[in-house]
C-alpha cells in the first residue's frame, strides 16, 4: 500500500513529535559525572637541600638554607648582636638555636636564627598568573627563643610575614621588618621611616609577638601626613584603623592579621585579625593553638621533658622542631575581588589541615592583580625566635572548601483562611549542601514569635545533613491590613533564611518564603469557566486539540491527538484499498 501525501505527512509529523517527546524525557549528564578538575602547579620549592631549585628566588638579609654549608651563597648570613653598653657587634654564628647542615635529613629555609636584631627574607621576583586563584601551603616553624615569655619583660618575637605584590612591580626589597613583618611601612622611635614593600596587595602576618596588628605607635597603615626632610612626621589613617591600642603594651600576641594594598609610605591598612575585643582596649586572640613552638631556654618546657638534660643536641633539636611545626594554607579565590582564607594545622598534620575551618576569612575590596609575586620575611629585635619555612607549594585553586546551606520553608497544616489572632505554624528544613561541616546553624526570621523556634540553640551540620526547625507566629491586625489604607490584604508572606559558620566564614542560604491566605479579603474570585462537553457533532469533526501555547506538560497530549488523527486516516485508507480489491 502507498500512502497518499496528506497521510504520509501526518505520519511523519506524528513520529517526529514522538521522537521529540522521547528525547526531552531523557536525563542530561549530571555535573558530578564530569571529571574532577585538577589543580595546575604554579610553583614547588621545598627548601630542603643546599641550594634553591628556582633561580627566581632572592635571599635577602640573613636568610639562607640550613643545609647549605657555611660560606656558600645559599647559607645563612652573619648579622649584628647586642654587645656591651648596648652597642651592636658582629655575631659569631649564623645558626644559633637553629638546625645545622646535615645532608642526611631535610633542611629548611632559615629567615632568622635566635640572635638579636636579625632580619631575613626570600622574594620570588617572577610574575605568576592569578587567573585560576591561588592555593598556597607551607610548613612554618617559630621556636627556641632566647627571650621566652617567662616574665612580663620578655617574649618570643617577631613573627613571619607572607605577602603578595602586583606582578608588574620589581620585587627586590621587602617592606619594613620588626612589627611590619617585611610588608608594611614603619616609623621607628627615633623618627626614622622605612618603606613598605612596593605595590603590595596583601600582607598576612603570623604574629607571635603581636605588633603587626597595631597601627600606632609605628604608623602602619597610614597615608599622607606632614613632611619633615621628605619624610612624614605625623601619621594619618583615612581607612580602617586597627582595634589594637596605640601603646606598645597593647599588642595582641599569637594572632594572624591581614593588611591591605600599599606602596612606599602609604597604605597597608589593617583589614582583619583573629581577635576578640573585650571590655579593655587590649585585644585577645581567637586562635585555638600557639603559632610559636617551645624553647630550650624555657625551663617550664624543658622541665617537662624526661631526660632532657642527657639528650644529644641533635635529639633536642628534633624534639623542638616536631613540637613547633605548623602547617599553613592560604587560598585566594579566582575573582576580581577575591575571598582570602587562612588555615593552620597546629599539629602539623595534613589530614588535620584538610579538615580545618578557616581561622580568618576576608573579602578583598580592591581588585586582585592579574599576575602576582610574593615573599616571606622574619625578624628579631630585642626579643628573639628562630624563623623557618619549607615545603612551599602553590597551585591554582580547584578544591577550595565550599560551604553552603539550603532552606525549604512550609506551613504546617492548612495554608488558607487565617484571621487576626490565629497562629500559623511553620516548618523549616535546613540542609548542608556544601562540602564542609557547619557550626552555629540556625534560622533567621523576623516574623516568627520570640521563643517559639525549636530547636532554640544553633546546631552543627555535616555535609548533606538536614535539620528541621519549627516556629509559630500569631497574626496581628496590622499584618492583615495594607499599611496606611485600612484595606484588607489577601496574603501574609513570611521570608526566612538559614545561617551558619564555617570557621571564620559566615554562610547564609538563599531566602525561602511561605504564604497563607488571609480572611476577610473582599469578594471571592469567580469560578473558572467550565470546559463544555463535546457533542457528537463536535466529535464528527475530529477529536478536539488543546490550545496553542500550552504548558510543556501539554506536549504529550498534543502528540496523542495527532497520533489518533493519523490512525483514523490510516484505517480509512486501508478500508478503501480493501474495497477496491474486492471489486
How would you describe this protein?
The protein is of the alpha+beta class. It folds into 3 domains: 1-24 and 552-583; 123-324 and 335-395, no CATH class; 405-517, Immunoglobulins (Immunoglobulin-like, Sandwich), CATH 2.60.40.10. The protein is 13% helix and 31% strand. It has 6 helices and 33 strands. It has helices at 5-24, 299-302, 313-324, 350-354, 536-540, 555-582; strands at 41-45, 57-61, 64-65, 80-82, 88-90, 109-112, 119-129, 134-143, 159-166, 186-187, 193-194, 200-207, 227-228, 231-232, 255-259, 262-263, 266-267, 270-273, 275-276, 284-285, 326-332, 339-345, 360-363, 371-379, 386-395, 405-411, 423-432, 438-444, 459-461, 466-474, 491-502, 505-508, 512-517. The strands form 9 sheets. Strands 1, 3, 6, 8, 21, 22, 23 and 25 form an 8-stranded antiparallel sheet that branches. Helix 1 packs antiparallel against helix 6 (555-582). The longest helix is centred in the C-terminal third of the chain and has 28 residues, at 555-582. It is elongated. It starts with a helix and ends with a helix. 37% of the residues are buried. This is Putative repeat protein (TIGR01451 family). The chain crosses the membrane at residues 553-573. Residues 523-535 have a biased composition (Pro residues). Residues 1-30 form the signal peptide. It comes from Xylanimonas ulmi.
Mean pLDDT: 83
Q: How much helix, percentage-wise, in residues?
A: 10-25%
For the largest beta-sheet, the strand count, sense and barrel status come to: 8 strands, antiparallel
Number of strands: 33
GO biological process, one term: carbohydrate metabolic process
Keywords: Membrane, Signal, Transmembrane, Transmembrane helix
Protein name: Putative repeat protein (TIGR01451 family)
InterPro entries: ConA-like_dom_sf, DUF11_rpt, DUF7507, Ig-like_fold
